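Hi W.,

Here's what went into the run:
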Amino acid sequence: MIGLLEIWRRRFQFVLIALIVTLISYLVLMINGLGVGLNDLAGSALRNWDADGIAYSQAAGLSVIRSELGTETVERIAAAEGVEESAPLGYVAANYRDAEDEIASAAFIGYDPGTIGEPDVINGEALSPSQRDGLLADKSFLKAAGLEVGDTVMVSLRLTSREFQIVGEIDEGAFFFQPAVYVLRSTWQELKYGTTEGVPVASVVLLKGDNLPGMQGDGFEVVDKSTAFANIEGVEGQQSTVTALRWFGYLIGAMVIGVFFYVLTIQKVPQIGVLKAIGASDFFVFRQLLLQVLTLSVAGLAVSVPLAWATEQALGSLPDAVPIAFTTGTYVTTCLALLATAIIGALFSIRQVFKTDPIIALGQQQ
Amino acid sequence: MAILELRDVVKTYGSGENAVEAVKNVSFELEDGEFIALVGPSGSGKTTLLAMIGALLTPTSGEIICGGRQLSELSNGERARFRRDNVGYVFQANNLLPYLTAKENLMVVRSIGGNGPSSASERANELLRELGLEKRASALATALSGGERQRVAIGRALMNDPQFILVDEPTANLDSVRGKQVVESLIKEVKGRNKAGIMVTHDLSMAEMADRILEIRDGQLHTSGPAK
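Here's what came out:
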């Protein structure tokens, strides 16, 4: 294929273009990684909940912060049609003192051991139903706080402070941009309301069963996890920001690749004329161009994907981690989108290929 | 037997009062195996005529018939295929692809879909050997001398085993000694393969090597007679 031969023979020029492709795809990958990382911070704990639906107080407008459910409502939810399992959860944000005695915030989630609301412990022990001063800390909490399983931590809320022991480590992620900490539901009631008597018993209820999302009942409504996630305060604005950045990245990518190859094509008009004069079809000429664009894009991605991965690793080892995260899905969709972008960029040049009159081969001097 | 027939071919550039008739009512036939020299001063219309025969230009009126087909009735794509399969073009400025080697410039003909006897690599080697270029096969086109480039261009024109060869001022950029060498190897290749050919030149000493000379002046065919 002469398109590939040309890349090899003019490798200096083409390496420069591939470098631009690398930088643009690195930029777009990092933006996408930032999107994933920010979403993880916003509510990966919610996405990790083992539930088919989440019930909110009808008055809460799908806000976990504002949702409060009393005993009767929780019982009605558990008895609703289609519900097979249910687990009430409480949420409250509280401050704690980290290893350096600095104050930081964590998302305290109250649950009942033995229900679908219980997180998997990856290190240490699970909470027993009587461990009112124990907590399960997410690994992001331990990293941010500089603490380990077995340490004690001072938690303050409502003008009082209370010492907890870190009993186990979990991998549930973050909630409301804070690391998640799981405590007993009664402990959560005490943290949030100061007492367990005559106060709401849960913020939301996790549900398993069929056809639950969309269900409305007396004082409650049920949505699926992705709706619940999208309704986390701040997520909508954050997602639209990241989406806008991502589209700008693709747009700039298409324009830069398109313009580069357009200039290259214009420079090669005499050669295109010769190829057409000796009988090459427009399709043949365009195929070479497309082959070059795809080769450079794949080469660019082959550098930028490992680079993005290495950046994620490097940033992850910093104490104040930048919220960047990649999933295999991020890489695959970003790479495919960038390849599509490159092809769209190459289409800018197709008119020039069709327009070139082979008669020019007669007149030109080299 | 005529493999190419021109009947009252006219080419007019522009329209109305500014119209210029570059080629006026030209008729002739190219016999199988015949090599014609088309001579005339610059601006006489010989390159225009050659471009019409090579399906690069469409006549304003008249007919060019090759293999029972009227060239002016072909679509753009069909004309590209006609050039690929039937015509070997040697341009005035050899027009090799600069980033390819001598041999690769020949192989391009096959990668664009052109046919021909034997494998592309063997055929390219054979042509380069006959043109005295076997030692230069892997030299980039930009590293070749003018005469070498022109001979590579001849090889490229023969690569697809065309029905006829069209050559436009092959010696324009060469001194007379090298020009003569190039034309000699051209005629040897064309004759050796029993191909027909038309060569445009303004150099009578080159034209004399052809079977027949057609003289064109102001777009009209004036004399046509045997060269030898």
